[in-house]
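Possible regression after last week's pipeline update?

I re-ran a chain I had predicted before the update to compare outputs. Posting the input and the new output here so someone can diff against the archived version. Not blocking, just want to make sure nothing changed silently.
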Amino acid sequence: MTSFYDVINSIKTYLQGNNSVSTVTFGDLLEVDLNKQTIFPLSHLTVRDVSFSDHTMTFTVNVMALDIVEETKENNKEQIEPFYGNNNKQDVLNTQLMVLNGLQSSLRRGGLFQQDFIVDNNLTASLVEERFENLLVGWEMDVTVEVPNNSISDINANGHGCL
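New output (post-update):
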């Protein structure tokens, strides 16, 4: 049986192997020490829900890819490019979008696909911009992963049959 751990650990392992990710966290984002700059770029996982069918479980996993925007301290307006401003926001957005693009590609036809994961074809990444101690930007994407659920081990737990 493919379990909760199989799904989240597979996504975590993929993200940890990406050169544009320093740290992968799980759970409530507010419990992560976002003031600690050494954890960025950060990928964060949250399981939104799990639904059950006859022989499958479908996990909805929210994946965020975030990094700190670094602003230049120069006040020389002649050196600031109007389109790009005085920060690396567009670079961060580009890099973190590639993290999610690589993940969705691996889920659909890469190493994660070979684990019998079936992924919803309609994935969308949404822009994230949050001001904590630092300005964080990036993307978040809800990934719907369907996995086989052929285990009947818990149905007859404690010698009891079906209700």
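Follow-up from reviewer: compared with the archived run. The helical segments are 4-16, 89-109. Marking as no regression found.
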